Amino acid sequence: MNASLPRIHPWYASFQGEAIRYHHRVHLGMAVATEGGGLITPVIRNADAKSLQEICREAKDLAARARTRKLLPEEYAGSTFSVSNLGMLGIEEFSAVINPPEGAILAVGAVAEKPVVADGRVEVGLRCRLTLSCDHRVVDGATGAKFLQTLKQYLENPVYLAF
Q: Would 114 disulfide with which of 1, 98, 103, 127, CB 3.0-4.6 Å?
């Protein structure tokens, strides 16, 4: 999926002990609400080496098993970067809390219709707010901004995503 994605800190590094640890793979955590009301973060291992379809399939399976508390411990430990989505609950914007020792977490808000200016006139457009929370011992603001810029380009031009 990401042959052209830069190896930037938010998903390849974490802060452990007194040092930054660099990872060779992306182990993507995804926040899932369980039936008991708590959150658990199942992990899609080696997400950087998988297609978008593989990630979607695995995410769906892990989320279903997480909601019924049927994950093995190794399936919810060791993420290097996480995503939290409250958009499905209608929340348009929020700040997600980093899961230590990860370097960052992406908060995904709801897709909502908003007035936008296009060619000098106001139209209705779809907008989604994304917020990146970073551990600044690992990820500086400029690197985080570059990550969000790259993500924005992918979302605005999905043809760049390999299916």
A: 127
Residue for token pair 């930037």? 8
State the first-to-last Cα distance of the chain, in angstroms, to the nearest integer.
Answer: 8
| Omega prior to 101 cis, within 30 of 0 | yes
pLDDT digits (tens, 9 = 90+) for 63-89: 999 999 899 999 999 999 999 999 999
Q: For the chain, what is the largest distance between any 2 Cα atoms, rounded to a whole number of angstroms?
A: 54
Show which residues are catalytic.
136
Cα 41 to Cα 50: distance, rounded to the nearest angstrom: 19
Domains observed in the chain = 9-145 (3.30.559.10)
CA distance 139 to 133: 9
